[in-house]
Design brief:
By secondary structure, the chain is α/β, with parallel strands linked by helices. The chain has 10 helices and 7 strands.
């Protein structure tokens, strides 16, 4: 059974998440602050850890840092009411798998967890990419964006948004910043997105991974 830990100081939200995810069939544990959460993590393996960003005793970024020190491969989703792109990018760079912005919908939480669990399967891929590069393409939006840009050569923000059918421009902006932070895309003087040399190499590695993962078909 999938083990999930929720670290949240708001008891109402914590209990709500426990109920929602338990109904999905997950084995859920919770902690009211980061210190209690870290003690649980030291004693037990969790497939996914959800932690609030703003908490007393120990903030979410500090919790994330400590989790990665204890369990480097842990899948952490940051929960934040202060969902700026900058905070989200910082969390991803620090090792978070994804983020959720309060207030969130039940199906969003469920989808994020399923996605993180699915992407954990990347460990089955051949080790042809560095771990930080794998992180750059671990989200389907980022992977699909790279493929679109590779096919088109150059694309405007609105082109990518429309082609991927993304309604939330902020969400796409976040993922583009992640890709830029890993130096796999860049913009020209006309603000068109294009692959860097590293991005082109990543596309080739992606093709190799997908061929191998699909059994060579």
């Amino acid at each position: 059974m999938t083990n999930i830990l929720i670290i949240e100081d708001d008891s109402k939200m914590r209990d709500g998440l426990v109920e929602i995810l338990a109904d999905e069939g997950y084995n859920i544990e919770s902690a009211e602050n980061g210190q209690v959460g870290l003690e649980k993590i030291k004693k037990k393996e969790f497939d996914v850890i959800l932690t609030d960003l703003i908490m007393p005793v120990m903030g979410g970024m500090e919790v994330l840092t400590e989790i990665k020190h204890i369990k480097p491969m842990a899948n952490v989703i940051i929960i934040t009411a202060f969902g700026t792109i900058e905070n989200a990018v910082d969390a991803i760079k620090a090792g978070a798998s994804d983020y959720i912005t309060k207030p969130f919908k039940i199906d969003e939480v469920q989808t994020k967890i399923r996605m993180v669990l699915a992407m954990a399967e990347i460990d089955k891929y051949p080790k042809v990419l560095e771990s930080d590069v794998i992180k750059a393409i671990s989200n389907p939006i980022r992977k699909d964006t790279l493929k679109l840009i590779n096919k088109a050569g150059k694309l405007k923000f609105t082109d990518i948004k429309n082609m991927l059918k993304i309604d939330d421009a902020t969400k796409l902006s976040f993922h583009l910043r992640i890709l830029k932070s890993y130096n796999v895309i860049e913009q020209d003087n006309e603000k068109l997105y294009m692959l860097t040399n590293a991005g082109k190499k990543m596309i080739e590695s992606l093709k190799m991974i997908e061929r191998t993962y699909s059994g060579g078909n």
